[in-house]
Amino acid sequence: MRALPRRLAIAALALAALSAQATDLMQAWQAAREHDPDAAIALAGRQAGETRRAQAAALWRPTLALNATVGAMNADTAMTGARFSAPGFGQSDGVNFATSIHGGTSTRWGLSARQPLVSGDRQAQRRQLLIGADAADLEWQASQQELMLRTAQRYFDAVLAERKLELLQRQQLAVDQALVEARDRFAAGDKPITDTHEASARARALQAQVLAAESELQLAREQLSDVTGLPPAALQLAPPAEAAAPAVLPPLEQWLELAGRDSPQLRLQQANAQSAAQEVARRSARAGVTLDLVAEAGRDRLAGSGDFGSASNTASQAMVGLQLTVPLSTGGMRSARQDEALRLQEKADAEVERTRQQVRQQTRAAWLGLQTGKARLQALAESLTASRARLDATQLGRQVGDRTTLDLLNAQNDASGAELALVQARADVLLNRLRLAALAGGLDEARLQEVNAALQR
Fold this sequence. Notes:
It holds the Pfam family OEP. The protein is α+β, with helices and mostly antiparallel strands.
């Protein structure tokens, strides 16, 4: 419950910031870190994983147990043919002894302590717990990076949806103007009816595209709001600026080496394989042999009355020593479990190799996306410039009668498409920068801030 006021305060500050300026990527990430349920799940998992270190240490510490019992008890004992001797009484053979207690009170208490000295099972279990603690930390790190990527992806999805709707609305306005002009010029006998039909058809098609783009934008804003907790209506997003590609990109082999060493997903699979190997060690016959230092103290007492009057029996004991346990037969259970553990270890090793291949493939894809990003951005920028020049020339040509209304509509569509493609390419470059850093285990707030600095202000 203590986290609720803190989250409300953060949300209030975020809303205040939104009212004053555009929502940048860092603000979206900070809100997502506090709001997204996956972040809370990952944090709780990490904190739970840390307790495994204490469990690992406790395995080799002494344990102390106290047990006590009280209840009603009957006891009858009979002994015949015994020899009895005592100072001053001499010796007698064929002596009989009998005791009897009916409905007596039985009390028992015992105190035992145990210190493990040798145990292959405990040693393997300790390693498993430490590996599990490291794995929980890796899961948290991977979830943080995944949340950063998801937040950035949804942020740029919303940016692109906004730009797409803006371009379609702008194009729709131009087509509506062209339709009015075509109708006027047809009425004046200056243009054929085909110009009117072409402009009308394009206007209706754009109207449908605008409606679809509005739905797409609403969905993108809602998805970003889901991860950040920020109201969709308050989001004022900043598109990527022109300088989106990194000036210098380290070689691919360097990134592959980093990813093969530091990728959280790969390291997590390796930790699972190490844990599976320790499970095999736990199931071996050698691991079942244990040597413990033990100490015990206890007392049993029964008091009441029976066939011979009041009686009581009391027994006390104390012991300190070593206890060796060697399993001789488990009916095949140990060997069956060891076979299962071996197969699971093989499965975990195969998953490590699969993950390694996936990480390498993803690293190559992200690196190539960045490697070609600068040239791609330059080509798309030149394409946009050419499309706009073509649009200007087509508008002039239509005014003098050298171009048709269809030519003008196509030029407008190409110019809008080129502008949207350029924005998409800038967003792809920024996302590839984040993906490459995440694959190498280096995606943090500093890297996110670098991408945030590439947004328009």
